[in-house]
Amino acid sequence: MQYNIYVLIKAIYEDIKINPNTLEPSTTGVKFKMEDISRNAVEEAVRIKEKYGGKAIGLMFGNEQNALIMREALAMGLDEGIIIKGYTINDPIYTSRVIYEKLKDTKWDIIIMGYSSADAYTAQLAPRLSFLFNVPLVGNAVKLEFNEKNVVATKSLDEFLVRIESELPAVISVAQEINTPRIPPLLQIMAASRKPLKIEEAPLSKETYYKVIEHKAYVSSRKKIIFEDINKGVDEISKVLKSA
Amino acid sequence: MTLIATALCYPEYFDLPRFYMMVAVYLSASFSVIFFFLLLEFRLKRDEVSLKEFFELIFKRYRSWPNYFFDLLTHRKLLRDRKTGGLSHFFMIYALLLSFIGTLIVAFNQYYEIITGSSIFCGYFFEGYSFILDVVMWILFVSSIGGLAALYIRRNIIPKNDIIFNSFYLTGFAYLAVTGALLETFRIKSLTIRSYYLFNEIVFSFIKISYPVYLGIYITHFELAFILIAIIPETSIFHSLLSLINYLKEERPSGELRKPFDLKEIIEKGTFDVQVGINKTSDIKGFDRLELEACMHCYRCQDVCPAYAAGRPLSPTQLVTDLKEGIKKDKSIWDFIQEDTIWSCTTCGACVHACPVYIRHTDYIIDLRRALVMNMKLDEKKNTLLLALSSQENALGFPNQDRNSWLSEEGIKKASESNGVDNLLWVGCMGSFDPEAKDIVKNFVELIKKAGLQNEYAYLGEEETCCGDPARRLGEESKFQDLALKNIELFKKYNVKNIVTICPHGYNAFKNEYPKIDNWFKNVNVKHYSEVIQELLEKEKIKVKMSREVYTIHDPCYLSRHNDIVEPQRFILKKVGIIKEPKHSGKNTFCCGAGGSNYWYEVKENEKISHIRFRELKDTGASSIVVLCPFCNAMLNDASAVLSDGKIKIKDIAEVIKDNLA
Questions:
Q1: Contact A185 B478 (CB under 8 A)
Q2: Dihedrals phi, psi of B105, to nearest 5 degrees
């Protein structure tokens, strides 16, 4: 049985610089990278394709400058890449609606993605997609096996492993433990420029479900109480702790 | 003993039908030569090398001949690590050489006689050389028998084919030696001459040789000699020629890796389909196949290999043997070589420097790694290095923001703020982000300041990335070239003239590898900070005081073995104390375990390489181990944390000098 797989890939900022005066993040000149768990999702999609056959297509709601990241995913083994332009801010409602619009008339068996993204950690996209498409959600998988029209997923809860079986098509989200993603060398990324990569306009106009009041870095300020006399240290510390 | 009044001459074809014998000898010689070349062509064809290419290589690289023959005549490499075997080989080569010269003299004498009617191989010349050959005969005989014994002892660790051919040749040499002496004895007895042949005469006096036996010995002697020459290309003795080929075929210093493609060219032309690395045995081609065939299983490389000593799954000898056997059939490399064998190597180069036939084990290892990288078959730790190199462009994965900005406070300018850069202080990934390595830089900068030279240096700051060494040695050639190209653009922009590195790996990459990426880089002078400290001391820019401290030196592989920098550290330390050398020092140093990107990943082992090295250094009884590399520093400090009794300290060379400033 071959599967038509869409793997969702997110592009996130590498390291955001914090302006020490305003405490606001500055993204000018900061590079993008493939979001960490998206990388696991790509790896898993490629593995499913390699094992069972089919086609694995990368789908990103991002921007034109993220083409290099999509090429990296193509170098890992995806067959095609699609970038939908117009991403501005982390908003799982709008993102899920954009992806739904894009894929609602397409035949697919698996949508696979990271359970959550390393920048926002909302973990909302997979359940929202499952709802919109009205297909089962197979969440937080650490192991996936396929059996014709079914998927058997192992998901990790704190103290146990749970095996769930579901029909396809399904939306599957994976946890980072599921695999060690392959890292393509630069030459392979360059060579992947020959694979089809489409950059499309968003199928929906911009919708806003959030209002950003401000972006500010968290500052931890410690009290920096220093005791010089070691012999009295324990007493002094316990005093401070009690008064806190 | 009486001297012969009339000069005695060499009796050519003594007691034999001269004409028929000449015809027989020359026919055999011609057949032997023709057969040799036919067989050579046939043999080379198997590895897709033509006779023309083979001899072109030999003659085009004539400039390297003297060095090769220096190695051969001194037996420098064979004698370095093994005295008995080395000496046996030494004597055998000289015995064969002297016998060959004897044959040439005889031949020359014959033509001379035919033309002028008189002999020149007479009197003291003849008798003297005869005596030499009498001695040589015994040397050849004893070393052949010794060789046979050695083969017998090592019969389980040498491939069967090689044993058969080596035994055949050794027996042949022994036969040639004995029959040569017997022929001599027969002639001498028949001519009733005494004197110079005393020793052989005594030994052979009890042997009575009849004429038919004499004739038989005579014919088998020269025929066997010709056969042994003719079949060389199809036997293990081909190593004699292949060692020359191996020596000539690569002109790279051992620290420089092969460049399988040119990234710039690939980007310009858009031709990404390049064969990178070795996946299957048929990917090893031409002279690289022949290179493997030179191996005679002497195990010198295994004996010096730190990975083998640590119990990792790598023996360079076994690797070469496996590849040598493997190339006979086209198959996947990974059918017979474990991935961890390839990752065990620290690219310290000990094997390459030990090999008497100039095999470059590390070339194959790196090519195998390149295949694993291209196939994206690395484990998590190696992947982390690749990710760090692609995202942060430094090997430790730290953001480059404010990198080394503390140097500005020390009076060293940023390259972007200065007008052209005479001396660029390349701080390196370790120097920038590893706290202990940072101290090395701090101490070195203090010395520069003491000499009042801080204005002559500049640093790159956040523009500094990775030199690319970890990428290249992990097998990610494209990332290495990408980094090198970017760095060279940066150096061009600031018109950099000299680069000073803390790290020997950066030093090696800049010195040996960058000029092959861009010709412009040939104008840049690269120095290791130990060379700079030596200069400061020589020019008395800084002064030190002598102490009674005993130092031992841990020479970094990429400084001392690959780049021959052995003197500066000794010059420096002699000024401040006493040096006690460890067992492995200078060019023969022993790896700390970090090279070849090993710093970033782990391989199963019985003992850490750094522990083996630390113990050896500690055993010198010195009070300080002096290091000259941030990686060695980290590795030995880790080992010291486990093994030290607290008496021995690890100090960087800049720290030693700073502590002893007068």
A1: yes
A2: -60, -45
